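User: Show me an example of a complex going from sequences to C-alpha cells.

Assistant: Sure. Here are the input components:
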Amino acid sequence: MTDMKNDLILRTLRGEAVERTPVWMMRQAGRYLPEYMVLRQKYGFFERCQTPALAAEITIQPVDIVGVDAAILFSDILVIPQAMGLEVQMVESRGPLLPEPIKTEADFNRIRVPDTDETLGYVFDAIKLIKQELNGRVPLIGFAGAPWTILCYMVQGKGSKTFDEAKIFCYTQPALAHKLLQMITDTTIAYLKGQVKAGADVIQIFDSWGGLLGPEDFENISLRYIRQIVEALKDEALTIIFAKGAWHSLESMAATGAHGLGIDWCIKPQLARQFAGNNVTLQGNFDPAKLLSPIPVIKAEVKNMLKAFGPGRHIANLGHGILPNVPVDHARAFVDAVKEA
Amino acid sequence: MTDMKNDLILRTLRGEAVERTPVWMMRQAGRYLPEYMVLRQKYGFFERCQTPALAAEITIQPVDIVGVDAAILFSDILVIPQAMGLEVQMVESRGPLLPEPIKTEADFNRIRVPDTDETLGYVFDAIKLIKQELNGRVPLIGFAGAPWTILCYMVQGKGSKTFDEAKIFCYTQPALAHKLLQMITDTTIAYLKGQVKAGADVIQIFDSWGGLLGPEDFENISLRYIRQIVEALKDEALTIIFAKGAWHSLESMAATGAHGLGIDWCIKPQLARQFAGNNVTLQGNFDPAKLLSPIPVIKAEVKNMLKAFGPGRHIANLGHGILPNVPVDHARAFVDAVKEA
C-alpha cells in the first residue's frame, strides 16, 4: 500500500503491530539545531515558511541529524489568521504580534474564509518538495492550530499566560466567538485537506491553549470545532489531537475518531490510557526540561516512560516543544533511548 | 471557643456543619477595587506591604466592599526571598524582578535562613493591627508561597510561562535544589508560625507553579516540602494547600493532613472530590475570566458550581486570582450568589 521505508508511526496510529515504539519531537525542526540557526540568521521567519526550498531543508534537518521516525512540516499555526486577512508579525525571541486583533463585530469586515490554494499554496508546494526529498524515508506530519488556539491569538493579539481577553471575548460575545471559530474551522479544514492532497501522511491539530478552558468550555469552545476537523479528514489522513493540559477530556477526544492523542508530562501514562480507552494511540510525554539532564539520566527516564506506556499504541515524544538550549547530543540520546529499548 | 462573629470558613475547614457555603476570592484585596487603586497611586508596592496601617486597610477593604467571609493578608509571596537576602523589585504591571537570581553554589553565600522576627516583623505587626480592626467580624487568612514556587522566582529571576530555568536547575543540580528548597521551607515555617502567633486563623500555601511539574517531580520537588510546612503548623492553625494545576496529586495532598485543598476550574468538582476523598474541604473553582460575564450569567454559573460541589466541606472561591478589570458589582454578584444559594 505504501512505499514508505519507515512506516512505524503510520502503523502505530492505525493500531497495527510494530517492532518498536516510534519517536519524534515537537519543534524538532527548530532552534536547538545549529544547522537551523544558520538559516534563521539569513532569512526572516515568514521567508523561511514561504520559500518551499527553505521549509523543506528545515523540515528534513532533524531526520538527518537526530534520526526521528517522522518529519513535521516547518511552518506556523498563525499562517491561518494571516490567510484570513490579519497582519501577523513574528518578532524573533519575543513571539507573535497581531497589531490589529479582532474585538468587535466590525472587525469581521477585515477577515474572510480565504481560498487556501491562493493564500496558502506555498505550504502545499513545500509539502510536495519535502515528500520528493524525503523519498519515503519517513512519513510527513502536517499540522494546524485548533480553532480555539487560533482565536486566542486573533483576539488577544499576542502571546499570554492566561489569554484572558480571548476568554472574555468568548464569555461576553458568544455569538461572535462562535462565528469566528466556525470561520477558522472552515479555513482549517480546507487548509488541511490541501496538506493531505499535497502529500502529508498524518495531520496533528495543536490546541496549545486548550488547557486554559474548564471541561465544559473546552467542549463548547474548542473540541466541538476540532471534531469537525477530524471528521472532515478521517477518510483521507491519520489524525492526532494534542490539546495541552486538557487531560480531563481525553475520553471525548478519543471519541472523535482521531487516531492519536498527545499528552503532556503532567498526567501519568497509565491514567491517560484509562481516560482515553484502548482504541487510540497515545503520544508523549517526556518533560522537555528534562532533556537538559545528563545523558544517563535521560536514558533512564526514557526507559521509565516507555515502561509506563507499555508496548503498542504509543508514539514517544516530548510533552511540549523541545527547548532551544538543548544540546543536540541530548536530543539524539532521547531518540536513541527509544530506539534501543 | 472563639468570639468570631462569622466563623463559617473555620467550621467548614474543620468539617463541621454550616448554614451556608462560605466565600472569599483570591486577590480580593487588589486592583479591581478603586479604593485599592487610590493607595496604589500613592505608595510603592513594598511600602504598602511594610506599612502595617496600609496593609491593614487594604486587607479589610473587600470585607467592607464585597462582603467576603474572610480577609486575606495583603502581602506577597516574595517577601520570603527578600528576607533570605535576595533583592526583589516589584515592577508595577510587569511583575517581579530578582536581578541577581540563584544559579550556582557560590550564590548561596548571598542567602540565609533569616530571623523572621527581625526581617518580617512588619507582617506580624500588620496581622496584629488587622485582627484588632476586624474585631472578630471574619477570620484572617495568612499565607506563604510553596517552596517550589519560591524557588522558581529565586532561580528564574522573573515571571515565566514555563519556568524552564528553575526546572533545569532542579534536574541538573538536584543537591543544590534540595538545599535551597529546605532553606526556603525552614524560613517559611518560622514565618507562618509567626503569622499564626500574631493572629492569623488560617494559613494558605500557594503553589502557583506546582502544575508545571509532572506527578513524580511534584512529590519530590514540591509536596515533600509543603508536607513539612503543614505538619509544623497542624496543631496551631487550619491550613489550605492550593497547588494550581496539580490535580493529579489531590490524593497525596489530602494525605498531608491539610484541612483544605484549592482547585482550579479545569477539574470538575465531583472528580476532585473523588481524588481528594471525603476528609478534606475543597476550595474553588470559578473561572476568573467568567466574572466578566453579565451578572445573570455569573449568578447562574455560581449555582451550577455550588450544585457540583454539593453541600458541606466547600469554600466558594475563584480558581485563580480575580482579574484587575472585573467591575466591583460583578465581584459582589459572585459573593452574593453564593450567600443567596
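The lines above are the inputs; the final block is the predicted structure for all two components together. The mean pLDDT of chain A is 97.
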